[in-house]
Amino acid sequence: MYARDMARIATPVGTVTVWGDDVAVESITIDAADLPLNGGSARAVRAAAVQLEEWFGGTRRDFDLPLQPAVSPRGGALRAAMCAIPYGAAWSYGRLAAAAGSSARAIGQACARNPYPIVVPCHRVTNADGTLGAYSAGAGSRTKAWLLDFEARDRRGLL
User: Fold this and answer.
1) How many domains does the chain divide into?
2) One domain, residues 45 and 97
């Protein structure tokens, strides 16, 4: 059994906390408040902190991290479908549901329960009319808007 570890990094959307151990990342949270920073020491936790810093720095678009397995095979498939949304893109719940062979409601529930915001990019999932919809991390839709805008600016070379 591995000891649980944590790393906290400062980002433009608040303090991002990564929980896990040497083997896998357990969860990621975004807190709008400033919390004490911590570099973490477990391999998976440290790797996640470094990759998130690179993402916010505009030098990384994809993540390569060991995540805890999804609770069910269906959850794993929905997670993979979210990860397949291209960087800087926004897909509707319905479009992602069609791509994943699922329902928009199931996609919404998977997004709401996503333990890996940013890394599993549920912020890229929007309402059919293009409005943001809900976001369960950080400051909610304000954080989601910032993440989408950041990716769009990066794709246009404006960072």
Assistant:
1) 2
2) no
* 30 closest CA partner among 22, 21, 19: 19
pLDDT tens digits, 148-157: 999 999 877 7
Which residue numbers are catalytic? 122
40 neighbors 18 (Cβ within 8 angstroms):
yes
Measured CA to CA, the distance from residue 46 to residue 114 in angstroms comes to 20
Domain of 128 in residue numbering reads as: 73-155
State whether 50 and 100 are in the same domain: no
Q: Name the pLDDT band for 2 (thresholds 50, 70, 90).
A: low
User: Are residues 49 and 78 located together in one domain of the fold?
Assistant: no
- Please enumerate in sequence order all residues whose Cβ is within 8 A of that of 8, keeping only pairs 6 or more positions apart, or say none: 15, 16, 17, 18, 35, 36, 37, 38, 40
Residues 87 and 148 in one domain: yes
| Residue 159: predicted pLDDT | 64
